[in-house]
Amino acid sequence: MVYCGAMPVGFGYDIHRLVPGRRLVLGGVEIPHSAGLLGHSDGDALLHAVVDAVLGAAGRGDIGRIFPDSDASTEGMSSSVFLERVMAAVRPAWAVGNADVTVVAEEPRLAPYMDEIRRRLEGLLGTERVNVKAKTGNGLGPRDAIACYAVVELTAGGR
Ligand code: MG
What we know:
By secondary structure, this protein is an alpha+beta fold. The protein has helices spanning about 45-60, 65, 80-90, 115-125, and strands at about 10-20, 25, 30, 35, 95-105, 130-135, 145-155. Helix 1 (about 45-60) packs parallel to helix 3 (about 80-90). The chain is built from 4 helices and 7 strands. The protein has a 5-stranded mixed beta sheet. Strands 2-3 form a two-stranded antiparallel sheet. The radius of gyration is 15 Å and the shape is globular. The longest helix has 14 residues, at about 45-60. The protein is about 25% helix and about 30% strand. Strand 5 (about 95-105), helix 4 (about 115-125) and strand 6 (about 130-135) form a beta-alpha-beta unit. The site of magnesium ion has 5 residues, from strand 1 and helix 1. Magnesium ion binds near residues 14, 16, 39, 45 and 48.
């Protein structure tokens, strides 16, 4: 695929409910907490948002089309596998130029885990140009969920 002009940018968003008794996995990193994200896979809303941002930039649809909840083979699967598969599909035509992610959670406090999540994303995306931000909702929520927003810029592959 020959792409002329500005490099494509994709946006991704996801939100998953926090429920007691599940592991909390965000950005492929397990975070100690009394509740985890509900989902067909491991519920990793951060990686789901990044997957959708990559797919958006590449013009390849969305995560639900590629990994539907009805697929028993992905039940309980690590969402890192989703991102690995999507990156494998967009390479070698594309590489990630940069990624910027915002996580919105009232709890737990995510600051201690931001560096580990960023390094994990850098590995999955094959770039060191990754930024991850954590915010609370300033008391406005979501209170029983974690929401994530991601922007990914692709650049010509083969680097
Ligand atoms: Mg999701």
